[in-house]
């Protein structure tokens, strides 16, 4: 392993070790909110623009994942239909409401919104929309990043019911390339995926105690087809991506 790859691994591992303690209480709060929704047969939506949308895909129809999760996947706010224009969309007021209306979000639902910078229009509008409906909002964001660039603007952290501060520096990348002024090694996706999977694992553990943990199996595991088919049939009516 080279010095730079070793530095990246060490940096990421160190951050995860720190967050394991720093986020213990807010992760427990998030798990309690999601657990309450699950027991009421509600849904947990996951939304992010740009690279943050990968957290929504991470939990969708995933082996070991919870079947009541619903990814909010809108091409114009992601990257594959045009990365440059997606940056414009996420900063433009008024675009998120029609995106979310097709998902049928209801009172008692939960939406997890991932935004590292925490100041763009799209994630904040998503939070406002959810709260108007009566859904709970969980934010995965960097307080340091949003505080550094807000300049009086509202932050996602200001409008969420539960805030999971990923502890990342402004700009996301964590490694300096000596003599260049450049930084490499973004970590927000790795950290976000770890945090959300840890929370869902806690929720699944609690649900399993009553015998109703709707968890997908890997398609190649014995019995997976039958179990997954039942879960899809149960949850498809409110998940347009199944």
Description:
By secondary structure, the protein is of the alpha/beta class. The chain has a single domain, classed as Rossmann fold (3-Layer(aba) Sandwich), CATH 3.40.50.10490. It contains ten helices and seven strands. A five-stranded parallel sheet has the order 2-1-3-4-5, sandwiched between helices. 37% of the residues are buried. The mean pLDDT is 91. One of its GO terms (biological process) is carbohydrate derivative metabolic process. Keywords: Isomerase.
Structural class: alpha/beta
Number of domains: 1
CATH C-level label: Alpha Beta
CATH topology: Rossmann fold
Sheet of most strands: 5 strands, parallel
- Strand residues, percent: 5-15%
The beta-strand count equals: 7
Radius of gyration: 18 Å
Please state the average pLDDT score.
91
Global geometry: globular
Low-confidence stretches: none
Q: Spatial order of the strands in the main sheet? A: 2-1-3-4-5
| H/E element order | HHEHEHHEHEHHEEEHH
CATH superfamily: Glucose-6-phosphate isomerase like protein, domain 1
Distance between the termini: 41 Å
CATH A-level architecture: 3-Layer(aba) Sandwich
| SS field, number of helical segments | 10
Tell me the helix content.
Answer: 40-55%
């Amino acid at each position: 392993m080279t010095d730079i790859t070793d530095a990246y691994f060490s940096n990421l591992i160190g951050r995860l070790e720190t967050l394991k303690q720093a986020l213990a209480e807010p992760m427990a709060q998030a798990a309690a909110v999601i657990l309450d929704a699950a027991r009421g047969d509600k849904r947990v939506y996951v939304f992010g623009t740009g690279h943050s949308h990968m957290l929504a895909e991470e939990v969708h129809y995933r082996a070991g994942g919870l079947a009541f999760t619903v990814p909010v996947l809108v091409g114009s706010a992601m990257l594959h239909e045009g990365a440059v224009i997606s940056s414009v969309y996420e900063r433009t007021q008024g675009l998120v409401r029609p995106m979310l209306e097709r998902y049928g979000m209801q009172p008692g639902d939960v939406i997890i919104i991932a935004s590292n910078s925490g100041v763009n229009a799209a994630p904040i509008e998503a939070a406002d929309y959810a709260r108007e409906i009566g859904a709970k909002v969980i934010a995965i964001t960097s307080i340091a990043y949003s505080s550094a660039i807000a300049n009086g603007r509202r932050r996602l952290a200001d409008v969420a019911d539960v805030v999971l501060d990923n502890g990342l520096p402004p700009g996301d990348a964590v490694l300096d390339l000596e003599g260049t002024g450049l930084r490499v090694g973004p970590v927000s996706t790795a950290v976000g995926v770890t945090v959300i999977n840890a929370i869902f694992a806690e929720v699944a553990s609690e649900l399993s105690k009553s015998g109703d943990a709707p968890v997908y199996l890997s398609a190649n595991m014995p019995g997976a087809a039958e179990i997954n088919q039942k879960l899809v049939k149960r949850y498809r009516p409110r998940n347009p991506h199944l």
